[in-house]
Design brief:
Length: 150
């Protein structure tokens, strides 16, 4: 007696339908008789027997992803300087860029990063999520300070 005969079969042979009566899967090939499900090319996976289907019971979500991450918003020093000169930002107080952008039509979840393009001459305290190295150097060179939001 061989040991291999006691081993459990790990590979099951594929069903070969339509190969005669003796195979057990002849004639109708295990699909029953007539009806929609016996035909080829038919799939009625979402049909729930007349009950309102799940995809119609749930509310529509549109294109608002529920997994959306925070949007990164970059603002250059030259833009901050223009806002200060046009009196839209007060340089004597701490400038909270996130609050300023949220007062405009910006997405609710934002992260603000200050970039170093341009020059800033006024002494300001800027509050933001991130600062580039060049922006940080230019602000501190002008006598200002930076504050990072936790």
């Amino acid at each position: 007696m061989q040991l291999n005969s006691f081993k459990k079969k790990t590979h099951k042979p594929k069903k070969r339908v339509g190969r005669g009566i003796g195979s057990g899967l002849g004639k109708t090939s295990g699909r029953g008789v007539k009806g929609q499900k016996s035909r080829s090319g038919v799939s009625i996976k979402a049909y729930e027997g007349g009950q309102m289907p799940l995809y119609r019971r749930l509310p529509k979500r549109g294109f608002n992803s529920i997994y959306k991450k925070e949007k990164n918003v970059a603002i250059n020093l030259e833009n901050i300087a223009k806002l200060i000169t046009s009196k839209k930002l007060d340089s004597s107080k701490t400038i909270d860029l996130r609050q300023f952008l949220l007062s405009k039509k910006a997405p609710k979840k934002i992260k603000v990063k200050v970039l170093g393009t341009g020059e800033i001459s006024s002494k300001v305290t800027i509050l933001a999520d991130q600062f580039s190295k060049s922006a940080q150097d230019k602000i501190e060179k002008a006598g200002g300070t930076i504050e990072i939001v936790k």
